[in-house]
Amino acid sequence: QIKACLFDLDGVLVDTAKYHFIAWRELAEQLGFVFTEQDNERLKGVSRAASLDILLEIGGLTFSEEDKMRFAEQKNNRYVEYISKMDSSEILPGALSFLQECREAGIKVALGSASKNAMAILNNTGLTPYFDAIIDGTHTSAAKPDPEVFLLGAQAVGIAPEHCVVFEDAEAGILAATRAGMRSIGIGSPETLSEADFVVPSLAQVSVSKLGEWFAA
Ligand code: B16
Ligand code: MG
Questions:
Q1: Which residue has the least CA distance to atom 6 on ligand 1?
Q2: What is the ipTM of this complex?
Q3: Whether this model's pTM surpasses 0.80
């Protein structure tokens, strides 16, 4: 039986991937190469530092740690500019009503995001009050597919991993859920999220009664 829902942020509750993409593309342009939307897929769910390493690999460039820190900071400043303008209209379809439904059903709700900007995004979109616990990139030491972020979330809401379900749009996040001993629902396409227990296009296809059907045991 499901007693807690753990949500990834980017790609599940809000579409911040587009802002990450614009900010990374600007950096690539400045460094003299083209960064495509397809390249951007590789950065989903990946930490900021690891994202920069992938970007530089695509550009075939090597830099000192000092330069890399500067680039990461520059990208983040641009990203923060975009997310500072976000509001509730950028919450993805089905997210708000499902969060509400979870609360009414007494199911615990936690965030498990790699982002260090998660608090600003939740506050600007008005999502903060829906969460019993918020675990983000400022609380973790290991990135997905390490299960740390979800294990901390489960611990914070006091629910055992076998009663938790994770909602994720990234393959690394689904792996993290499995390694945490939790169920998982992929948000996106079944091809990229083949390890998930179930895959749906968005949270609009999810409800508390569906959870009961899917995870009856
Ligand atoms: P920041 P999630 C992840 O968020 C994004 O998917 C990923 O593209 C990003 O690099 C990462 O957060 C770090 O974000 O630079 O804001 O710390 O999907 O785990 O909610
Ligand atoms: Mg994500």
A1: 45
A2: 0.92
A3: yes
